[in-house]
Amino acid sequence: MNAFSSLMDGFGTALTPINLLWAAVGVLLGTAIGVLPGIGPAMAVALLLPVTYGLEPTGAFIMFAGIYYGAMFGGSTTSILLNTPGESAAVVAAIEGNPMAKSGRGAQALAAAAIGHFAGGMIGTVLLVALAPKVADLAVDIGAPDYFAIMVLAFIAVTSVLGSSRIRGLASLLIGLTLGLVGLDQMTGQQRLTFGSLQLADGIDVVIVAVGLFAIGEALWVAAHLRRTSGHAIPVGRPWLGKKDVKRTWKSWLRGPLIGFPFGAIPAGGAEIPTFLSYATEKRLSKHKDEWGKGAIEGVAGPESASSASAAGTLVSMLTLGLPTTAVAAVMLAAFQQYGIQPGPLLFERESELVWGLIASLFVGMVLLLALNLPLAPVWAKLLRIPRPYLYAGILFFAAVGAYAVGGEALDLVILLVIGLIGFGMRRYGLPVLPAVIGVILGPNAEQQLRRALQISDGSVSGLVDTPFSVSVYAVVALIVLWPLLRKLAGGLLKSRRNVTE
Questions:
Q1: What is the phi/psi pair of residue 457, to 5°?
Q2: In whole angstroms, what is the distance from residue 415 CA to residue 424 CA?
């Protein structure tokens, strides 16, 4: 009941005219940027983060929530229309959505995705309201060893489920951890990797890292392959769903959150795993097996609902533990830090009005998202006709302006270009970007918690595993690390038994 009354107070904050305006502007901007090919939610949020700096915190985060959900929907629109996923979580939408678009059913695919985002987001946010305060209460008792164990779990989980190999995931994480070392040591005040530059003493701003890795890296990558790729918009009509489509998709919309929300709330790499699991589930339960791979609408509705619910689940760990499990959450954490606010167990007490206003704005933003994007889908399709040289030139311009606005230093532009070249190299050699961003965000915090835990135990390593919680988390870490080996051994045993029986 306490959470319900707090949510009602949050609606009182979110439904003021000025905050409604910020929510609408956020949804519109997020969708407009996210719908452009190759951008995706993380890059859209990073590009638009400087736009919120001039606002007071509550209005800024309400606008930010609109950008978040709007950009998520935009990423799936690109995936469906152009077979160009803006992020890895939108890959599944292309499997069935793009064949639907090619067969003239792009409108239905976009409508199924929009309603799926709405249903998944609504259910996920209801679960966020119910669970986040309880998680925050439990998190108050978590000590330094437990926090370090959780961050190790985040590092291992993210590097294990993303990329073509674990080695590449770990290499990306190492890049992020190295970038996170730049600046003054938080405990001793010693300079690290500053090369004698006073501007680097405060470290590299996370926004510059995110914009550099995502926007600059992607723009350079596309420019390098521009002559070999081409894209054209597929015209779509008025989005609508017939009775037959609704009958096939309503169960998928409701099943998606049950898969997406738990994976979003734990450090398991965000929406990639639940969208694939949702796709596999819908394919197994479908009565139209012959349509899969050719444009089965359930293959769009279920994964998109799971993806949106996963985004709500991500906010549970980000708000209550200060633990970003996706690149978008990492950029959002940077936005909190920009205002001097540290997400964690005490956030619901210290910044109650802001947090509940933000959660209430998620409901408002999803209603606005559905109302805007169902009729505006043909407009987003026309935006995709922008020639790519002009498109990415604009991205580079806004990225540079945003990076310069962070600190007002010309050196920030040099750092942005260097990090952009690193992002280009990561794409060239197949390194996933998310572990690097997670490393930059969590690296300094993980180091601090590690040193605190060792100080408490007088330098004994056993101090890292002296609580039941930390032991449980390390057991999960061990399972993730050893799972491929255990699965291989189990497969070998089954194969040998079959040979014996034959």
A1: -95, 15
A2: 14
d(CA 50, CA 28): 16
| Separation between Cα atoms, residue 396 and residue 220, nearest integer Å | 9
Digit-coded pLDDT (tens) for 440-484: 877 887 888 888 888 888 878 777 888 888 888 888 888 877 877
Of 430, 145, 340, 123, residue with least CA distance to 253: 123
Give dist(CA 7, CA 118) in Å, integer: 19
Helix, strand or coil for residue 121? helix
Closest by CA position to 471, among listed 121, 479, 275? 479
Q: List helix spans (H) across 339-409.
A: 347-350, 352-383, 388-407
More confident residue, 381 or 411: 411
Residue-wise pLDDT tens digits, 234-291? 454 445 677 777 778 888 888 888 888 877 776 544 566 677 777 777 877 777 777 7
DSSP string for residues in 63-91: HHHHHHHHHHHHHHHHHHHHS--SSGGGH
Condensed to tens digits (0 to 9), the pLDDT of residues 310-346 reads: 888 888 777 777 777 676 777 777 777 777 777 877 7
Give pTM, 2 decimals. Answer: 0.62
What is the token pair recorded at 92? 């599944």
By DSSP bridging, strand 183-184 and strand 191-192 are: antiparallel
Task: Quote the distance between the C-alpha of residue 106 and its chain's center.
Answer: 25
Say which residue the tokens 């004994």 belong to.
Answer: 460
> With 80 as the cut, is the pLDDT of residue 201 above it?
no
- 3-state SS class at 37: coil
Q: CA–CA separation, 33 vs 39, rounded Å?
A: 7
Query: What distances in angstroms separate CA 103 from CA 81, 237, 287, 363, one per listed residue?
Result: 11, 13, 21, 34
Q: What pLDDT, on the 0 to 100 scale, is given for residue 421? A: 92
